[in-house]
UniProtKB/TrEMBL annotation:
It comes from the Bacteria. This is Glutaminase. Belongs to the glutaminase family. Homotetramer. InterPro entries: Beta-lactam/transpept-like, Glutaminase. Pfam families: Glutaminase. One of its GO terms (molecular function) is glutaminase activity. Keywords: Acetylation, Hydrolase. It catalyses: L-glutamine + H2O = L-glutamate + NH4(+). Substrate binds at S64, N114, E160, N167, Y191, Y243, V261.
Protein backbone atom coordinates (compact mmCIF):
# COMPACT_ATOMS: atom_id res chain seq x y z
CA UNK A 1 0.00 0.00 0.00
CA UNK A 2 1.35 3.47 -0.84
CA UNK A 3 1.69 5.71 2.20
CA UNK A 4 -1.36 7.62 3.36
CA UNK A 5 0.16 11.01 2.51
CA UNK A 6 0.46 9.92 -1.13
CA UNK A 7 -3.05 8.44 -1.18
CA UNK A 8 -4.59 11.66 0.17
CA UNK A 9 -2.64 13.85 -2.25
CA UNK A 10 -3.62 11.69 -5.23
CA UNK A 11 -7.29 11.63 -4.29
CA UNK A 12 -7.32 15.44 -4.02
CA UNK A 13 -5.74 15.67 -7.48
CA UNK A 14 -8.33 13.28 -8.89
CA UNK A 15 -11.20 15.22 -7.32
CA UNK A 16 -9.88 18.51 -8.72
CA UNK A 17 -10.24 16.99 -12.20
CA UNK A 18 -13.68 15.39 -11.62
CA UNK A 19 -16.18 16.52 -14.28
CA UNK A 20 -19.39 15.82 -12.33
CA UNK A 21 -19.42 17.71 -9.04
CA UNK A 22 -23.15 17.58 -8.05
CA UNK A 23 -25.39 20.49 -7.13
CA UNK A 24 -24.55 23.01 -4.41
CA UNK A 25 -27.40 23.56 -1.90
CA UNK A 26 -29.42 26.65 -2.82
CA UNK A 27 -31.99 26.95 -0.01
CA UNK A 28 -29.99 29.77 1.63
CA UNK A 29 -27.81 32.36 -0.15
CA UNK A 30 -24.63 31.74 1.92
CA UNK A 31 -24.57 28.09 0.78
CA UNK A 32 -25.63 28.87 -2.80
CA UNK A 33 -22.67 31.24 -3.07
CA UNK A 34 -20.03 28.55 -2.42
CA UNK A 35 -18.08 27.43 -5.49
CA UNK A 36 -18.58 23.76 -6.49
CA UNK A 37 -14.84 23.72 -7.31
CA UNK A 38 -13.88 23.62 -3.64
CA UNK A 39 -12.52 20.34 -2.29
CA UNK A 40 -10.76 19.64 0.98
CA UNK A 41 -9.67 16.53 2.84
CA UNK A 42 -8.09 15.88 6.23
CA UNK A 43 -7.04 12.48 7.53
CA UNK A 44 -5.80 12.34 11.12
CA UNK A 45 -4.29 9.03 12.08
CA UNK A 46 -4.54 7.47 15.54
CA UNK A 47 -0.97 8.58 16.35
CA UNK A 48 -1.88 12.20 15.49
CA UNK A 49 -0.23 12.32 12.07
CA UNK A 50 -2.31 14.68 9.92
CA UNK A 51 -2.60 14.56 6.13
CA UNK A 52 -4.22 17.61 4.57
CA UNK A 53 -5.09 18.25 0.94
CA UNK A 54 -6.85 20.88 -1.14
CA UNK A 55 -8.99 23.31 0.86
CA UNK A 56 -8.48 21.40 4.11
CA UNK A 57 -7.96 24.63 6.08
CA UNK A 58 -10.96 26.53 4.68
CA UNK A 59 -13.95 26.88 7.05
CA UNK A 60 -17.28 25.70 5.62
CA UNK A 61 -20.78 25.29 7.02
CA UNK A 62 -20.80 21.89 8.73
CA UNK A 63 -24.62 21.81 8.87
CA UNK A 64 -25.86 18.34 9.82
CA UNK A 65 -22.42 17.03 10.76
CA UNK A 66 -23.07 19.05 13.94
CA UNK A 67 -25.78 16.52 14.86
CA UNK A 68 -23.02 14.11 15.99
CA UNK A 69 -21.63 16.61 18.49
CA UNK A 70 -25.10 17.69 19.69
CA UNK A 71 -26.07 14.04 20.22
CA UNK A 72 -22.85 13.38 22.15
CA UNK A 73 -23.54 16.36 24.43
CA UNK A 74 -27.19 15.43 24.95
CA UNK A 75 -26.30 11.84 25.85
CA UNK A 76 -23.89 13.25 28.43
CA UNK A 77 -26.65 15.41 29.81
CA UNK A 78 -29.67 13.07 29.90
CA UNK A 79 -28.12 9.64 29.33
CA UNK A 80 -30.07 6.80 27.77
CA UNK A 81 -33.37 8.50 28.64
CA UNK A 82 -32.76 10.33 25.38
CA UNK A 83 -34.06 7.23 23.59
CA UNK A 84 -37.52 7.71 25.03
CA UNK A 85 -37.92 10.71 22.73
CA UNK A 86 -35.84 9.70 19.68
CA UNK A 87 -35.54 6.34 17.90
CA UNK A 88 -32.48 4.50 16.61
CA UNK A 89 -33.68 3.21 13.26
CA UNK A 90 -32.71 4.40 9.81
CA UNK A 91 -35.60 6.32 8.30
CA UNK A 92 -35.22 5.53 4.60
CA UNK A 93 -36.66 9.02 4.08
CA UNK A 94 -35.23 12.40 3.21
CA UNK A 95 -33.40 14.34 5.93
CA UNK A 96 -36.27 16.81 6.36
CA UNK A 97 -39.19 14.39 5.98
CA UNK A 98 -42.26 14.67 8.20
CA UNK A 99 -44.17 11.57 7.07
CA UNK A 100 -43.13 9.06 9.76
CA UNK A 101 -43.90 11.45 12.59
CA UNK A 102 -47.64 11.07 12.11
CA UNK A 103 -47.83 7.32 12.64
CA UNK A 104 -44.98 7.23 15.15
CA UNK A 105 -46.48 9.63 17.71
CA UNK A 106 -44.06 12.48 17.10
CA UNK A 107 -41.00 10.32 17.93
CA UNK A 108 -38.39 10.81 15.16
CA UNK A 109 -36.74 7.70 13.78
CA UNK A 110 -33.21 8.73 14.70
CA UNK A 111 -31.14 11.69 15.98
CA UNK A 112 -29.59 12.49 12.59
CA UNK A 113 -32.69 13.37 10.57
CA UNK A 114 -33.81 16.95 11.14
CA UNK A 115 -36.75 15.97 13.36
CA UNK A 116 -34.46 13.94 15.64
CA UNK A 117 -31.84 16.66 15.81
CA UNK A 118 -34.51 19.19 16.76
CA UNK A 119 -35.53 17.00 19.72
CA UNK A 120 -31.84 16.71 20.70
CA UNK A 121 -31.52 20.53 20.53
CA UNK A 122 -34.59 20.77 22.77
CA UNK A 123 -32.83 18.54 25.32
CA UNK A 124 -29.72 20.73 25.25
CA UNK A 125 -31.94 23.72 25.98
CA UNK A 126 -33.24 22.28 29.28
CA UNK A 127 -32.26 24.62 32.11
CA UNK A 128 -30.59 27.08 29.73
CA UNK A 129 -31.31 30.18 27.72
CA UNK A 130 -30.81 29.49 23.99
CA UNK A 131 -27.61 31.56 24.03
CA UNK A 132 -26.15 29.36 26.77
CA UNK A 133 -27.07 26.13 24.97
CA UNK A 134 -25.48 27.42 21.77
CA UNK A 135 -22.40 28.48 23.75
CA UNK A 136 -22.19 24.99 25.26
CA UNK A 137 -22.17 23.36 21.81
CA UNK A 138 -19.53 25.78 20.52
CA UNK A 139 -17.31 25.27 23.59
CA UNK A 140 -17.63 21.50 23.25
CA UNK A 141 -16.59 21.47 19.60
CA UNK A 142 -13.72 23.86 20.28
CA UNK A 143 -12.50 21.64 23.13
CA UNK A 144 -12.72 18.50 20.98
CA UNK A 145 -10.68 20.11 18.22
CA UNK A 146 -8.40 22.00 20.64
CA UNK A 147 -9.08 25.13 18.60
CA UNK A 148 -10.81 28.24 19.90
CA UNK A 149 -11.02 29.87 16.48
CA UNK A 150 -14.02 27.69 15.49
CA UNK A 151 -17.06 29.95 15.16
CA UNK A 152 -20.75 30.08 14.36
CA UNK A 153 -21.54 31.91 11.12
CA UNK A 154 -24.34 34.27 12.15
CA UNK A 155 -25.32 35.01 8.54
CA UNK A 156 -25.94 31.28 7.99
CA UNK A 157 -27.91 30.99 11.26
CA UNK A 158 -30.08 33.97 10.27
CA UNK A 159 -30.72 32.59 6.80
CA UNK A 160 -31.67 29.20 8.27
CA UNK A 161 -34.15 30.97 10.53
CA UNK A 162 -35.65 33.00 7.70
CA UNK A 163 -36.19 30.01 5.42
CA UNK A 164 -36.75 27.26 8.00
CA UNK A 165 -40.44 26.61 7.33
CA UNK A 166 -40.03 22.85 7.09
CA UNK A 167 -38.02 22.71 10.29
CA UNK A 168 -40.68 24.88 11.97
CA UNK A 169 -43.33 22.45 10.68
CA UNK A 170 -41.40 19.49 12.14
CA UNK A 171 -41.00 21.30 15.46
CA UNK A 172 -44.67 22.32 15.64
CA UNK A 173 -45.78 18.82 14.78
CA UNK A 174 -43.58 17.22 17.45
CA UNK A 175 -44.67 19.84 19.96
CA UNK A 176 -48.28 18.83 19.30
CA UNK A 177 -47.33 15.27 20.37
CA UNK A 178 -45.66 16.61 23.53
CA UNK A 179 -42.15 15.73 22.30
CA UNK A 180 -40.67 19.23 22.65
CA UNK A 181 -40.38 20.92 26.03
CA UNK A 182 -39.72 24.50 24.89
CA UNK A 183 -41.32 27.07 22.60
CA UNK A 184 -40.34 26.12 19.07
CA UNK A 185 -38.54 29.45 18.39
CA UNK A 186 -36.09 28.70 21.18
CA UNK A 187 -35.47 25.09 20.21
CA UNK A 188 -35.04 26.02 16.56
CA UNK A 189 -32.72 28.87 17.53
CA UNK A 190 -30.37 26.30 19.06
CA UNK A 191 -30.73 23.95 16.08
CA UNK A 192 -30.11 26.65 13.45
CA UNK A 193 -27.02 27.89 15.28
CA UNK A 194 -25.50 24.41 15.58
CA UNK A 195 -26.08 23.94 11.83
CA UNK A 196 -24.23 27.24 11.26
CA UNK A 197 -20.98 26.04 12.87
CA UNK A 198 -18.15 26.85 10.49
CA UNK A 199 -15.17 24.49 10.53
CA UNK A 200 -12.40 23.38 8.25
CA UNK A 201 -11.75 19.74 7.35
CA UNK A 202 -8.76 19.80 9.66
CA UNK A 203 -10.83 21.12 12.59
CA UNK A 204 -13.62 18.64 11.89
CA UNK A 205 -11.30 15.65 11.71
CA UNK A 206 -9.66 16.79 14.97
CA UNK A 207 -13.07 17.13 16.64
CA UNK A 208 -14.04 13.61 15.53
CA UNK A 209 -11.00 11.88 17.01
CA UNK A 210 -12.83 10.67 20.14
CA UNK A 211 -14.96 8.44 17.88
CA UNK A 212 -11.91 6.61 16.51
CA UNK A 213 -10.19 6.50 19.92
CA UNK A 214 -12.69 4.61 22.12
CA UNK A 215 -14.20 7.84 23.39
CA UNK A 216 -10.99 9.59 24.44
CA UNK A 217 -9.58 12.90 23.31
CA UNK A 218 -6.05 11.87 22.23
CA UNK A 219 -4.64 15.34 23.10
CA UNK A 220 -5.61 15.26 26.74
CA UNK A 221 -6.29 11.56 27.34
CA UNK A 222 -9.60 12.59 28.91
CA UNK A 223 -12.64 10.47 28.27
CA UNK A 224 -15.31 12.33 26.29
CA UNK A 225 -17.65 9.34 26.26
CA UNK A 226 -17.28 5.70 27.33
CA UNK A 227 -15.93 3.20 24.75
CA UNK A 228 -19.42 1.71 24.55
CA UNK A 229 -21.00 5.07 23.82
CA UNK A 230 -18.40 5.82 21.14
CA UNK A 231 -19.26 2.48 19.49
CA UNK A 232 -22.94 3.26 19.66
CA UNK A 233 -22.59 6.74 18.16
CA UNK A 234 -20.52 5.15 15.38
CA UNK A 235 -23.30 2.58 14.84
CA UNK A 236 -25.86 5.37 14.45
CA UNK A 237 -23.60 7.22 12.03
CA UNK A 238 -23.25 4.08 9.95
CA UNK A 239 -26.98 3.28 9.87
CA UNK A 240 -28.47 6.79 9.80
CA UNK A 241 -25.71 9.33 9.05
CA UNK A 242 -26.55 9.73 5.37
CA UNK A 243 -30.38 9.63 5.61
CA UNK A 244 -31.91 7.63 2.75
CA UNK A 245 -28.38 7.25 1.34
CA UNK A 246 -27.04 5.48 4.45
CA UNK A 247 -27.15 1.98 2.96
CA UNK A 248 -25.30 3.19 -0.12
CA UNK A 249 -22.66 4.94 1.99
CA UNK A 250 -22.14 1.81 4.14
CA UNK A 251 -21.80 -0.26 0.97
CA UNK A 252 -19.36 2.04 -0.76
CA UNK A 253 -17.34 3.35 2.21
CA UNK A 254 -17.96 0.89 5.06
CA UNK A 255 -17.20 3.41 7.79
CA UNK A 256 -19.44 5.39 10.14
CA UNK A 257 -20.04 8.78 8.53
CA UNK A 258 -22.15 11.88 8.96
CA UNK A 259 -22.91 14.23 6.11
CA UNK A 260 -24.10 17.84 5.99
CA UNK A 261 -25.83 19.81 3.28
CA UNK A 262 -22.83 22.17 3.20
CA UNK A 263 -20.95 19.28 1.53
CA UNK A 264 -18.96 18.08 4.54
CA UNK A 265 -18.63 14.48 5.74
CA UNK A 266 -17.02 13.26 8.96
CA UNK A 267 -16.00 9.60 8.74
CA UNK A 268 -14.43 7.38 11.37
CA UNK A 269 -12.08 4.44 10.91
CA UNK A 270 -12.03 3.11 14.49
CA UNK A 271 -8.52 2.75 15.84
CA UNK A 272 -7.09 4.09 12.61
CA UNK A 273 -8.19 7.58 11.60
CA UNK A 274 -10.63 10.45 11.83
CA UNK A 275 -11.42 11.79 8.38
CA UNK A 276 -13.17 14.91 7.11
CA UNK A 277 -13.92 15.75 3.49
CA UNK A 278 -15.62 18.74 1.96
CA UNK A 279 -16.98 19.29 -1.50
CA UNK A 280 -20.12 21.43 -1.70
CA UNK A 281 -21.78 19.72 -4.69
CA UNK A 282 -24.41 17.24 -3.48
CA UNK A 283 -25.96 14.07 -4.90
CA UNK A 284 -29.73 13.58 -5.13
CA UNK A 285 -29.91 12.53 -1.46
CA UNK A 286 -28.25 15.72 -0.24
CA UNK A 287 -24.87 14.12 0.52
CA UNK A 288 -21.56 15.37 -0.90
CA UNK A 289 -20.96 13.76 -4.29
CA UNK A 290 -17.18 14.07 -4.43
CA UNK A 291 -16.85 13.76 -0.66
CA UNK A 292 -18.36 10.28 -0.90
CA UNK A 293 -16.23 9.39 -3.92
CA UNK A 294 -13.07 10.59 -2.16
CA UNK A 295 -13.89 8.43 0.88
CA UNK A 296 -14.65 5.45 -1.34
CA UNK A 297 -11.22 5.78 -2.95
CA UNK A 298 -9.55 6.28 0.43
CA UNK A 299 -10.95 3.03 1.82
CA UNK A 300 -10.19 1.14 -1.41
CA UNK A 301 -6.55 2.18 -1.16
CA UNK A 302 -6.06 1.86 2.61
CA UNK A 303 -8.29 -1.17 3.20
CA UNK A 304 -10.03 0.67 6.09
CA UNK A 305 -13.44 -0.81 6.88
CA UNK A 306 -15.40 -1.68 10.00
CA UNK A 307 -16.26 -4.94 8.22
CA UNK A 308 -12.64 -6.06 8.00
CA UNK A 309 -10.08 -5.91 10.84
CA UNK A 310 -7.41 -5.02 8.23
N1 LIG B 1 -29.72 23.29 8.12
C1 LIG B 1 -30.15 22.19 7.33
C2 LIG B 1 -31.64 21.97 7.55
O1 LIG B 1 -32.06 22.04 8.67
C3 LIG B 1 -29.37 20.97 7.69
C4 LIG B 1 -29.71 19.78 6.82
C5 LIG B 1 -28.52 18.96 6.42
O2 LIG B 1 -27.37 19.32 6.55
N2 LIG B 1 -28.82 17.85 5.81
O3 LIG B 1 -32.39 21.75 6.61
Amino acid sequence: MPDIATIVREIAEEMAAAPDRGQVATYIPPLAAVSPRRFGMAVIEADGTAHLAGDAEAPFSIQSVSKVFALTLALGKVGDQLWQRVGREPSGSAFNSIVQLETESGIPRNPFINAGAIVVADMLLAGHAPREAIGEILRFVRALAGDDTIFIDEAVARAEQETGYRNAALANYMHAFGNLAHPIERTLGVYFHQCALAMSCRQLALAGRYLMARGRNPDTGFSIVSPQRARRINALMMTCGHYDGSGEFAYRVGLPGKSGVGGGILAVAPGKASIAVWSPGLNERGNSLLGTLALERLVQRTGWSVFDPG
